[in-house]
């Protein structure tokens, strides 16, 4: 006889928003969903395979603090704030500050979802909305850092998320960054987002980079430079990064950022005595608001810093560790309520116990220690097949990208060379036009003078012709009188001879004047022809300049079009080598220019800094800089001596 069971009740659904550093993911999940399910769904959506660096954070509804989501537990079993489903009808606010600095309200997670959204269909029916019990907000952030961030990261999406996380931590002042380094990193962030400066100012959003958050607030508080001065300095540095792609700019950003002393570190306040961190509610609120301030908290005896290399202990400031234990020196870390015990590998009795303010902090220290130690050991083992496949796939993609980038740079170099040639030709044509413009008034003035002279010669010829006609009429009268009187005839004959001589002279003069007038007319005609030729040449040069400008614009458009799908092209060896040499020389020149600009900026900052606003971290950084110390030398000093000796030093602290 068959047994009929009861029908399984459908689980409640919740609307889950996961905020990454540059996007928002939206899913519907069941009430029984575990953290692993959501985390796997986020990684699959982003195409993130290096998931071991990341984790999900949420706001604790009891303590109103940030906690890591436990992936092996259900989401609703953890104290996560659940908003009513009316939040689905709201749109996230977007910051609209136009300053170089935009303050972030939260420590590690982003302040608000950005405009990019990956989600289910946004239109939710009323029936589906009724079945959704509420909205859960989670944040995908970096949890563990590699030892060498520029070489260990494999995927582009991983590097992109690390870049955004580190950039935000620097802007939030979670990582101490000197002003000159902050300006350099700001210029790299502009190059990564907008590309070359000359191309950015020509684009439709040419001024949108002015609204970017570029510098931490401390740069404006501690250095007497206006925002416009800072912006001009950053723009000058931005120009030196020309031709860097987005990937190269982000990689350079991470390369310089990982040399900062607080990079990749998570700090905790610890005490040798239990209850040493008890403070008043007002002090707790003040410490929560200024947790990442570079001024030490009065209640703290020590700071514990955890990163990919090991555990560090700080006494005076967060730049110089007093004692450092690598993960190879540490055998185990255990946590019991607020107590944490550190055991070394050298001796079972070599232990150090300390206390935290809350048991949740002890658990977080244990969690970070276990995760970092696991990654530390994994790096020193042979790479798995998955890692090898990922590296091979990314290397092939990088080779293809570099081939396309090299082709784009070659086309750009040729286009710039052609542009320079066109510019030189344009200058030559402009010089010729200037000479023609200078000569044309002289031609016009000479033509006007010749025309006036020809007019005067014509008037003289006309007067002489009229005078000749008058003399001829007199001659006719004389001949008439000669027939009447023979005596008068001889007289008139003499007069006739004289008149004929005068007439001959006048006729010769008239012919001569006519000839001169004809020559002047021919000369005027020649000048008119020269003037017309000059005008035609000027018109031709003007049309040629317009065609050259059109050709230059078409060449730029062709370069942009060719960048998307470059045609097959194989340059000759000599041309390719010369182009490579030119690129190397250009890179060296830009590096030298960048070094000079950074040194000049550093000198300006030294002269403009406000001494009374310099914090302990600023003074510690200046002291380390004066004696030639850096992040790695201070770690080496803190690790000097045997593990037992360092444990004794730690006990003394």
TrEMBL record:
First-listed, main subcellular location of the protein, grouped into a coarse class: membrane
Coiled-coil annotated spans: 468-502
Compartment annotation: Cell membrane
GO cellular component: plasma membrane
GO molecular function terms attached to this record: actin binding
Keywords, ordered alphabetically: Cell membrane, Coiled coil, Membrane
Membrane protein topology class: Peripheral membrane protein
Residue ranges occupied by any FERM domain in the UniProt entry: 14-380
Pfam families: ERM_C, FERM_C, FERM_M, FERM_N
UniProt-listed InterPro entries: Band_41_domain, ERM, ERM_C_dom, FERM/acyl-CoA-bd_prot_sf, FERM_2, FERM_central, FERM_domain, FERM_N
Name of this chain's protein: FERM domain-containing protein
């Amino acid at each position: 006889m068959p047994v009929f069971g009861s029908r399984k009740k459908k689980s409640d659904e919740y609307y889950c928003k996961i905020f990454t550093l540059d996007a928002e993911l939206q899913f519907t999940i069941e009430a029984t969903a575990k953290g692993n399910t959501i985390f796997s769904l986020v990684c699959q959506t982003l195409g993130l395979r290096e998931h071991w660096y990341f984790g999900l954070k949420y706001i604790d509804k009891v303590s109103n603090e940030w906690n890591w989501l436990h992936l092996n537990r259900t989401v609703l079993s953890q104290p996560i704030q659940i908003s009513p489903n009316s939040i689905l009808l709201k749109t996230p606010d977007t910051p609209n500050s136009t300053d170089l600095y935009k303050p972030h309200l939260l420590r590690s997670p982003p302040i608000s979802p950005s405009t990019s959204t990956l989600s289910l269909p946004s239109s939710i029916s009323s029936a589906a909305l009724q079945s959704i019990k509420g909205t859960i907000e989670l944040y995908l952030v970096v949890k563990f850092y590699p030892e060498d961030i520029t070489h260990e990261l494999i995927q582009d999406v991983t590097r992109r998320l690390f870049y955004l996380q580190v950039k935000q931590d620097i802007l939030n002042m979670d990582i101490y960054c000197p002003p000159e380094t902050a300006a350099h990193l700001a210029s790299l962030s502009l190059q990564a987002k907008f590309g070359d400066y000359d191309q950015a100012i020509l684009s439709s959003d040419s001024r949108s980079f002015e609204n970017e958050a570029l510098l931490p607030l401390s740069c404006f508080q501690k250095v007497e430079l206006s925002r416009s001065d800072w912006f001009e300095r950053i723009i000058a540095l931005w120009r030196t990064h020309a031709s860097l792609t987005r990937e190269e700019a982000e990689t350079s950003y991470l390369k310089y950022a990982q040399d900062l002393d607080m990079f990749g570190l998570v700090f905790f306040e610890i005490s040798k005595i239990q209850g040493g961190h008890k403070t008043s509610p007002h002090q707790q609120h003040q410490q929560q608001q200024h947790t990442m301030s570079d001024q030490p908290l009065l209640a703290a005896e020590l700071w514990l810093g955890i990163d990919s290399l090991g555990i560090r202990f700080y006494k005076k400031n967060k730049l110089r560790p007093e004692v450092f234990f690598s993960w190879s020196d540490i055998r185990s870390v255990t946590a019991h309520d607020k107590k944490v015990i550190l055991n070394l590998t050298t001796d079972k009795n070599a232990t150090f116990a300390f206390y935290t303010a809350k048991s949740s902090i002890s658990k977080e220290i244990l969690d970070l220690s276990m995760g970092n130690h696991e990654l530390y050991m994994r790096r020193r083992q042979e790479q798995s097949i998955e890692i090898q496949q990922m590296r091979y796939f990314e290397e092939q993609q990088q080779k293809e990208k570099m081939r396309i980038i090299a082709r784009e740079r070659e086309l750009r170099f040729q286009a710039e060379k052609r542009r320079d040639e066109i510019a030189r030709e344009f200058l030559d044509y402009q010089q010729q036009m200037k000479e023609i413009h200078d000569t044309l008034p002289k031609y016009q003035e000479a033509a006007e003078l010749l025309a006036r002279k020809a007019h005067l010669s014509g008037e003289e010829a006309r007067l002489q012709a009229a005078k000749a006609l008058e003399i001829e009429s007199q001659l006719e009268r004389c001949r008439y009188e000669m027939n009447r009187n023979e005596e008068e005839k001889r007289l008139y004959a003499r007069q006739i001879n004289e008149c004929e001589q005068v007439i001959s002279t006048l006729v010769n003069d008239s012919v001569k004047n006519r000839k001169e007038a004809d020559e002047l007319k021919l000369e005027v005609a020649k000048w008119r022809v020269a003037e017309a030729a000059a005008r035609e040449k000027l018109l031709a040069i003007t049309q040629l300049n317009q065609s050259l400008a059109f050709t230059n614009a078409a060449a730029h458009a062709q370069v942009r079009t060719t960048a998307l799908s470059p045609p097959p092209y194989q340059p000759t060896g000599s041309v390719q080598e010369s182009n490579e040499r030119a690129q190397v020389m250009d890179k060296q020149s830009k590096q030298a220019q960048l070094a000079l600009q950074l040194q000049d900026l550093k000198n300006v900052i030294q002269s403009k800094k406000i001494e009374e606003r310099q914090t302990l971290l600023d003074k510690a950084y200046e002291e380390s800089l004066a004696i030639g110390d850096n992040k790695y030398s201070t770690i080496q000093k803190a690790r000097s001596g045997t593990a037992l000796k360092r444990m004794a030093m730690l006990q003394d602290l």
